[in-house]
Structures are given as structure tokens and as C-alpha cells.
Amino acid sequence: MKETTAPDGLVFAAGEIIFLAGARGDSAYIILEGSVEIFVDSAKGRQVLAVLGPQSCFGEMALLGQPLRAASARAVSPTRLTALSRDYLEQSLLRADPLHRHLLRLTVQRLQASFGLQATVNSDEDSRIAQKQLRLAQGLRRGMSDGSLRMDMQPIVRLADEQRVGYESLMRFESPELGRVPPSEFIPLAERDGLVVELGRWTVDTVCRLLAPLTGGAPLFVNINVSPAQFNDDSFLEHLQAGIRLTGLPPQQLHVEVTEATVMADLGRSLAFLEGCRAMGVQIMLDDFGTGYSAMSYLHRLPIDGIKLDRSFIESAEHNAAARKVVAAVTRLAGELSIETVAEGIETAAQAAFCRNIGVGLGQGYLFGKPDRWQHYAATASAIPISRA
Questions:
Q1: What confidence tens digit (pLDDT) does each residue in 280-300 have?
Q2: In the beta sheet, which residues pair with residue 225?
Q3: Is 230 helix (H, G, I), strand (E, B) or coil?
Q4: Element (H, E) at 134
Q5: CB distance 299 to 337 below 8 Å
Q6: How far apart are CA 128 and CA 148, in angstroms?
Q7: 240 and 184 in contact (C-beta within 8 Å)?
Q8: Buried residues in 5-15 as b, exposed as e (16+ CB within 10 A)
């Protein structure tokens, strides 16, 4: 028979040979239905080595680089198999997390060595990446106490007079060992390793602590980003409430940002989470609004205080009439629902003027300030109450 290079179903009649000893092969097989006999023929006759049933695997030596079959296999009863080739296994490994890939390749190498086979995989690069990921995960855990993890702030202004009214908190990590690590690298790792929930709690504690000394002044607010993992963590709201209570922070000064994608993934759970935030007085911003989900039709049902218009619309609005119409329509609808609008990614005066002229209330972007350490902004932190008339 011809062995496949992808996990397609293969059907064999009772008594049909699957492969013979001495034949070349590069696939292992998993039995989905039926039974398979593994045997060898010699001058003394046929010796049955094993009879395997569903979920059993055979022919796996081919995956370790042994090109010739050491035994024969035949279907005892009508049988259906899945074939797994060495190429398919390698492609699956390439799609795996580097740490998992490194561990699997080490396992393969040790099996090859135990059978006296030549190593067919090189895990040096995976080893380097895996070790870096392990150091990064350890550094993040330490960073919550040693200061290498911090919250930077980016100003949010009221577009009517460009007064600062709040900030978005943005996590930054600068490891003594690894140097400055971008969020695009450490956030996915934290999500894969389950660290993101712990980091989210650290974020709540840190922001509440930073904001607490300013509670005697104008109502400055800070947005914190909530990941899907935190969104599904039943203890998150309790921790949020505890942070507010322990620091004495007025809850309306804390805004929770959740992405449109997260909210729309499970609307029932989302409503419960958002109502929980609302119940304790925390305001809710819907982030990345307009990035491909159907939140527009649900906007009136969501207990939110504001939406953040995705930067892609703001970038396009200068030269794309359709984008301008979309931003204007969303802004108008949000206003009718008493929902604040925030334009993200404003980098030019023209973009700011466009957003202001169509009624967008708040703006954020490099035009008004880059993310920086809280100490940079805290000395001059001031705010004017936001009008929601």
C-alpha cells in the first residue's frame, strides 16, 4: 500500500496487509476502528508479536528515522487507520509552542539514541528559544516585586480643549537579564503560561496605589486593560473591589478596558462581568471598536460607558471618505446612547481636528503624549470633569 503524508482515514479489509517487514516507510498509524496484528515470518513460521485495538499506535519507529519496517502488520478485522508521517509530525512541531517543541524533540532524540538511530532533528534553536521563554516567565514573576515590571501611562485628553482627563495604563518590562522586552513578546507568553491573571491582579493593585494620592483633586481616571483570561476569572471582580476598598480610591476613577472581540466571544458572560463592574462604580470602555465584530447591533444592550475607536479608522479617515463616514456614524450613535467616544492613535493635528469636529469626545495618541513612566506625569497630573451632556 502507499502510505499517506497526512492524517487521512485509511480502510483495510480483514486479512489485508498494511505493510511488510523490510519495506521502507515513514509513517506511524493509529487504529481508529478494528484490530491489527503485528507479526514476523521466519523459517520457523509466523510469530505474532501483538494484536492491537482502537487507539493503539504502531509503526512508530518510522518517525524516529528507522527506514525499514522491523515487522509486518495486517488487519485482523475490518480496520480504519490514521497515518502520521514524519513530515506531518515535523510540521505539527513547528506550529507548537517553542518550549513544548523543544521538549518533544529532546524526547525523540533520546529515543533515537536508545535504539542506536542517527538523530534526525536539531533542537538547538528551539533550546535557545525555550530557555529564553523560561527566563522571561521567571523574570515576569520576579518583576512584580523587584521593580523590573512597571506601569507606564499614556495621556487621554478631552478634544474640545485638549486638557488631560485620564490615562491608559500600559505594562512595561525591563529585565536585568533580558533587557527591554516588548509587550508583544511577554503578553502572549503570560497568556500561554497562565501568568496573565496574576499580572492582571498586580496591575489593579499598582494602578490603585498610584492613583490613591490624587483622590483629593479633580477626577483623574486611569484605564486598565483586561485580558480574556481575566475576563473569565471569577475572582477578578473581587480583587478589583478589594483594591478599591483598601486604597480608598473612588471607583469612578478606575476604568476597565475590554476588547470588542472578548465581549462578543461570550455575550452572556460578558454582560455578567460588565454589570459586576458597573455595580461597584467602575466604568467600562470597549476597546478596538470596529475591528470586525458585530458589536454595533449590540451596543444598546451593553452596560458600557465608552468605546475606543480603533486607530485603523483614524489613520484612514484623512484620505478615505468611507472611513470618515463610519467614524462619524459610530460617534453619532454613541452620543445618542450617552456613550463616550475615544479616538485612538491620533498622531496629527488634522486627525485631532477631524475627530473634534464630528463630536468625538476624547483622544489618545502620540500627538498628546507617548507612554511614559507615571512619575513623568504625576507631578502635573490634573483633570477637568468630563461632561456627558
A1: 999 999 998 876 555 567 788
A2: 257
A3: helix
A4: helix 124-146
A5: yes
A6: 23
A7: no
A8: eebeebebeee
